[in-house]
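Exam revision sheet. Question 4 asks you to relate a sequence to its structure. Input first:
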Amino acid sequence: MGGSHSTQQQPGRPVEERHKSAMVQVDRATVQIERLKQSEERYRQVAAEALAEAHTNRKESEQLRETQTLLFGTIGVLGVGTLVAAGLAVAARRSQGAALEAAAKQLTEARRRTAIDVESANKFGVGKFAKDVLDVADNLSRAAECVPVEARASEAQPALKALYEGVVMTDAVLLKTFEKHGLVRMEPLGEKFDPNFHDAMFEAPDATREAGTVMHVATPGYMLHERCLRAAGVGVVSKKNTG
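Answer key, structure tokens:
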């Protein structure tokens, strides 16, 4: 009986062992599942962090691109601005140089004109006064010519001789004073008639002279430096009548 009892209990041991083994496997599976869950959670965190980092990197990349674009644009603007500023500076220098050159030319021209005006004033400033004084010289010449030729050196009329000599000396001193100031008398007797310096008062035939020649000087002319102050009043030989 005892042997049969032990024989009946032996088949139950493998069941318990199998149960224990199954429980162990279940526990192991549970642990594995927990580990997998933890790993999955960790993977999810890592993925989320990676995604967040990628998103951050993307934003930083976009910001970097924007910064680069802005920087390049700024550099471009600065470069263009620098070029424009340089161009404006060069243009300003050229304009200033041209303005200075024009001002220098104007100043030189003004100085030249001023010098000409001063020289003209020095030369011809006495022109009006000298022209008025010419009447005095004309009257002195007429007074001297009124004295007869034979009486000019005659001792019979010493007073008339002295008067004549005084008039001639006064006329000579006056002419020297004129010449000192550039005023020169013209007596173009025998010269070719020149309308720039001669005033034809009459024409007359003269077989001994060429036509157009000054045959008589009624009033002498005067030159003030290179300018004709008064034309000489002259008589001119007329053209011969070929008819």
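Marking note for examiners. Helices lie at 2-9, 12-124, 127-146, 158-180.
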